[in-house]
Amino acid sequence: MPTPGETAKSAPTPADGASPASAPATPLLRTGRIHISARQRGADITALVRLALHLPQVLLSAAVVLATACTVEALGGPPWWLGFAGWALSGLLLFHRPCERVIARRLFGLRYPTPKEAPTLRAVWREVTARAGVDGAAYQLWVEESPELNAMATAGHIVGVTSHSLSSLPPPQLAGVLAHELGHQVRGHAWATLLVLWYALPGRLAARLLWRLAKRTDRMSAGATLITAIVIGAVVIALVTATYGLILFPLITPYLAAAVSRRSELRADDHAADLGFAAELMAVLGDESEREPVQRPERRSLGSADEPVLTRLLDSHPDIHTRLHHLQARLERRR
């Protein structure tokens, strides 16, 4: 029976054209009643750590935006606080549905499912969200035209899957992949990543501009080179002093962020396993592990011994064998 704060809904029947395949232990498309939780999403420790790791970059971006706003005001533009406040509040637009759709199309190259794809995709998604106690209608399903076996959780309410995954995976295995992506959404991984990318953007653009100026010093006269070096040095010293050295933290942030990203992938696997899709997700990973050396022999397996250590430390995903071992341990614990 539903716990306090939950409401019961009747489970929808499969859409026309959907094939009601069965998972190994329980039928994929069930009938009866499901419980929709009042809490649709949150933020686990990996999402919070990701935000904390990129705080120096966000502070750098704030300094860049503030300096730009003050310069515009000095040139006769609007007050500095107006531009700064606009940037600070702009992150809210990332969760505005029309803006999410623009991000999905322009940034990630996603499209709406075709009439042939939609029934199966929606039927499988209903089963995944029903097991999770989540309102599936709160999310939008998109498709990436790609020959890769992949899926993604992006923006505030968007779950995408490649056309190859949709056409080649049987419904139980597709459900395992979508359950993994739902884990990214409900645990806060997707929105945390998006906010970090957005609010760190001005600082990255400023750093890229300074780097380009530094690369052009060989084309400048001796006097211009000296002035440029003095300006860049003064800016770096000012930022180091103002941030108590935190401005140097981004030098190791990519490695720490990659480690957190790998952990968040394992937590999303845990979410899929807790919903009963461990075996299905393991089947997908196992097939991909066997197929990748054949389809892409030039690509070394993740975590292989001949791969440079620093490259492995920058991998955003754990190697497949680690994920399989983690899922197997989770499956045995549930038994």
> Strand order of the main beta sheet, please?
3-4-6-5
Helix proportion range? 55-70%
Strand content: 5-15%
Overall geometric form:
elongated
Element-by-element helix/strand order: EEHHHHEHEEEHHHHHHHHH
Description:
The protein is α+β, with helices and mostly antiparallel strands. It is 58% helix and 7% strand. It has 14 helices and 6 strands. The protein has a 4-stranded mixed beta sheet, with helices on both faces. α11 runs parallel beside α14 and α12 packs antiparallel against α14 (320-334). The longest helix is centred in the last third of the chain and has 22 residues, at 253-274. It is elongated and about 70 Å long. It starts with 6 loop residues before the first strand and ends with a helix.
Topology:
Elements: E1 7-10, E2 33-36, H1 45-53, H2 55-74, H3 80-89, H4 97-107, E3 110-111, H5 118-132, E4 140-144, E5 151-154, E6 158-162, H6 163-168, H7 171-186, H8 189-199, H9 201-215, H10 222-242, H11 253-274, H12 278-295, H13 309-313, H14 320-334
Parallel strand pairs: 4-6
Antiparallel strand pairs: 1-2, 3-4, 5-6
Helix pairs in contact: 1-8, 1-11, 2-3, 2-9, 5-7, 7-11, 7-12, 11-14, 12-14
Short description:
The protein is α+β, with helices and mostly antiparallel strands and 335 residues long. It is built from 14 helices and six strands.
